[in-house]
Amino acid sequence: MRAENAMDLVIRSRRAVLPDGEGPAAVAVREGRIAGLHPYDAVLDAAGQVDLGDTALLPGLVDTHVHVNEPGRTHWEGFASATRAAAAGGVTAIVDMPLNSLPPTVNVGALAEKKRAAAGQCLVDVGFWGGAIPGSLRDLRDLHEAGVHGFKCFLSPSGVEEFPPLGADELRAVMTEIASFGGLLVVHAEDPALLGEPAGPGYPEFLDSRPGQAERRAVERVVALAEETGVRAHILHVSSALCLEPLAEAQRRGVRITAETCPHYLTLTAEEVPPGATQFKCCPPIRSAANREELWRGLADAVLSCVVSDHSPSTPDLKVPDFAAAWGGISSLQLGLPAVWAEASQRGHGLGQVVRWMSENPAALAGLDGKGAIAVDADADLVAFDADADHPVDVAALHHRNPVTPYHGRTLRGVVRATWLRGRAVGDVPGGVFLRPGPGPRLDPGPEGATAGTRRTGPERTTEERTSP
């Protein structure tokens, strides 16, 4: 007979990645939360026991930049396929972008429609961004109160007509409004005045049409307005190292601005893009190998704080072999961890740093209290990661809806062996919940450009809603 204080599950690993470092531990789980952290060989009463040995145990990853596209463009991607891909990649919480679905998530009614579409399908937890577009100013506060994690806007055309960019005056008004209720604005930052049409169908012409200076100028504009309005702002998918200097200077001055990059900018390079291989096309674009090294330096210096997928899939027919005409977006939700680890480990970064970039900091950005760390009272979202195994990528083995990815044929490093969501192994039965921001601390730049400590302590927790009606 089990003792009254028995655990539901104990997972042991000699490479548990904990907030204070990597080492042997036994993680005890009860009622979906981490109830205790113990020595690896501790004798613990539990209904289930898993010994991973030398396989690493990580907190579930948090991907705050995912385009699920359902409803409206579910043939591109949907909640069932996206969350299955997430779980297979060790991602236990995603935050869905407001565009590419029909309708876009720009008012409370559209948010409710998206939740109805997602209900009963999600294998991992799901949160939602709202959208800030021309004419949506009066909807922002209502969306905030309805539980979105923040608001996305574009400064240049988004690629879909139902989600137009904000002009200069509209951007200032949106920032002022969001600052008034303590919200977050996340920005696709490219200056449209510096973008052009590609002069030809090849990748060099496409790359020339979206110069790094377009990103930098847009970042400088966001920094100036964030400083003026006091809003908390976050720059999405930084691809150009030209952005690092204005971001670092703003963070040193105390401007509330953070930034992210993506696995494809840290892994792939412009020099290796084959002719016509439009599975590599994304906006902003993959740049040079030298630029890639500068982005890694930006992560090491904490100017960039998050690494998230910008999973932006489409049907294969939209990836025509012409970089001027093809849809821009990279599918990598399932592959982010091994892609980043393959490159990070070569540069001397450990699993603890990867966890900070891909779990702890994204959770803090979106206000996901109880996520992002293996800590007592946190959600028991856990990942068994065989960090030393080769990972040859076969697109046919991926779970996102359409078999397109630039990683096909590459060998990455590390394999996800198992994923647990609140202490239950993720399988075929949807167990994800809808997430709302909790009251805990947020990701803000700290002194000298470093991000401040952000993990929740005490009883503050992210609000959860069941995903079934």
From TrEMBL:
The keyword Kinase does not apply. Residues 445-456 have a biased composition (Low complexity). It is an enzyme of class 3 (hydrolase). Its EC number is 3.5.2.5. Residues 57-426 form the Amidohydrolase-related domain. One of its GO terms (cellular component) is cytoplasm. The keyword Iron does not apply. Pathway: Nitrogen metabolism; (S)-allantoin degradation; allantoate from (S)-allantoin: step 1/1. Residues 432-469 are annotated as: Disordered. Transmembrane segments: none annotated. GO terms for biological process: allantoin catabolic process; purine nucleobase catabolic process. Belongs to the metallo-dependent hydrolases superfamily. Allantoinase family. This is allantoinase. It comes from Streptosporangium album.
